[in-house]
Amino acid sequence: MTTEEEILDLRRQLEQANEQYYVQDNPTMSDYDYDHMLRRLEELEQANPQWITPDSPTQRVGGKALESFQQVTHRVPLESLQDVFDYEELRQFDQRVRAVVSPVEYDVEPKVDGLSVALEYQDGQFVRGATRGDGQVGEDVTENLKTVRSIPLHIPDMPGTLIVRGEVYMPKTVFHHLNRQREERGEALFANPRNAAAGSLRQLDPKVAAKRRLDIAVFNVQWADNITFETHEESLNFLKEKGFKVIPHYTCSDVEQAIGQVEAIGEGREAFPFDIDGAVIKVNRLAQRDVLGSTAKFPRWAAAYKYPPEVKPSRVVDIVVQVGRTGVLTPKAVLEPVRLAGTTVTNATLHNQDFITEKDIRVGDTVLVRKAGEIIPEVLSVVMERRPPETVPYQLPEVCPVCGAPVQRDEDGAHIRCTGAECPAQLLRTLAHFASRDAMDIDGLGIAVVENLVAGGLVKTPGDLYFLQAEDVEGLERMGKKSAQNLVEAIDRSRSRDLGRLLFALGIRQVGQKAGKVLAAHFGTMEAIQQATEEELCAVNDIGAITAKNIVEWMSSPQGTHLISRLREAGVNMEAAQQGSDRRFAGMTFVLTGTLEGFTRDQAAAMIEDRGGKSASSVSKKTTYVVAGEAAGSKLRKAQELGVPVLTEAEFVAMLE
């Protein structure tokens, strides 16, 4: 087999596996085999770039980051639908339709709660994808849509233009997994799958979108050259034959049958892989749609039925407090079981103390409960007339219910947080952060390995990492002798990291990478920082009063003191690196934009800081230089407007040398 033949064969197998997994829901290839095959294809294409094509599976992993999205004017407007809220309104819709055309068949579909997009193909090649926007003009998100593996990049035997409309969504399983990961990293959680999908699709870096594992349900042919359809059902069958993942749909002979199908979709909504916020009822015959036409806002041939949120009473049996991986105390109402949106609900989040106080929720109260966004149970209000006389107002505890450390309210929010440096509830997140690249940079210590170490009882604090032996680790799941030895060696190498990295790794609130470097440079040793007062800390550039208070409280706490002692015992470096004599960028501020060929932005920023300069994220009159790489955008324009000097990458390298 020639190299070209191998490339074509690999593409065929990978695309077939994509369709089986993402469209047919019938995987025929293991993840291991798929990844191995994709890596081989990438190697062959890199060695033979003349054979790379836009529809290769390698193009789904995300290309270069964009500075902004381009606008797209839709060839066919992406109309919105008129909402109806009860079955009587659906019958009135049917009467209006039958007053113009009759008899009428309806197609009924679940209304996916996602982000509407148009996919455009030219001669079978996917050339552009755009968001709905205002229906007339959207944003070009082609590169991000290429990462959605259920979207075919090429359609055989499809001459001319084809434009289809679909709803991009984040599967519920992916959503819950993503939120767990964000919680472990201490990031804000997505409120619902729709927000997560919208945020992912509008990432300027397609590589981020690729990691989010978005999906799509296609539900309409917007434009098709050289082909006509009599019914909507026929057009969907055509799309399915062409390899699209088509929305589930049901053809009904009259409005009463359509109403029955709307009820069935509502009752079975938990089974769908995506969230729904209603059901769509459409006239099936396309010629009848043409006769009915549209108003200035909506098509007259379709309506969107919105399911009313179920609200039911239940009694608060107890209020329990959970400590999240970021230390936030979250109160939860334990409820008498109540059936909502197809599932039995036994608890509901109470968010924080402010939420409880505002609604005056007490143990023993009867409350009204619903599922927010059809997913998360929430308490709407207290039924005051059913309140028992012995109830008392509820207050969150003053110490962590897990480790006993004092709790502290966020200065800029409603969260109450455990201050314990070694709190078991925060251990996974604490260890993952400690080992991360910008902290102690322990290669191979990802969240999966951290979970195994904790589950095996081998680590209860970051300090314990440095006392691990290879034989302790090699018995863990997916951890052989060689992997265990590599991990222990990586941990050992991290002992010599600079004090600034260690300060960031400790996870002290508001002490990020920059603050860690500044503190290390100013005080020189961990001991000096431990002994520093709030006033002395505030005297350091970029360290404010709140950050100083957090540092003093952390350093003087029993858990913080124990952790530092444990790390010192393990031989972890507690001193700042000697500052280099090269201070050529002292007093200068650089802004990096575009793609640099010789190094990443993080590497360039480190080079600037090593020479006494500062790397900033936005351009202002105080900016000394803007370093513009390939595809530089808005920051470059801002620099030109303000008259800030702009350096090419070559000029920047010359300054470094």
Task: Give a structural overview.
By secondary structure, the chain is of the alpha+beta class. It has five domains: 58 residues, Helix hairpin bin (Helix Hairpins, Orthogonal Bundle), CATH 1.10.287; 233 residues, DNA ligase/mRNA capping enzyme (D-amino Acid Aminotransferase, Chain A, domain 1, 2-Layer Sandwich); 75 residues, OB fold (Dihydrolipoamide Acetyltransferase, E2P) (Beta Barrel); 160 residues, DNA polymerase, domain 1 (Orthogonal Bundle), CATH 1.10.150.20; 68 residues, Rossmann fold. Helices cover 36% and strands 20% of the residues. The strands form six sheets. It has a five-stranded mixed β-sheet. A five-stranded antiparallel β-sheet has the order 14-13-12-15-16, with no helix packed on it. Strands 5-4-7-8 form a four-stranded antiparallel β-sheet. β15 and β16 form a beta hairpin. α1 runs antiparallel to α2. It is globular, with a radius of gyration of 29 Å. The model has no long low-confidence stretch (mean pLDDT 88).
Whole-number average pLDDT?
Answer: 88
- How would you name the CATH homologous superfamily of the largest domain? DNA ligase/mRNA capping enzyme
Instruction: Describe the largest sheet.
Output: 5 strands, mixed
- CATH fold descriptor of the largest domain: D-amino Acid Aminotransferase, Chain A, domain 1
Strand content: 15-25%
Give the count of helical stretches: 24
- The unreliable regions are none
CATH top level of the largest domain is Alpha Beta
Radius of gyration: 29 Å
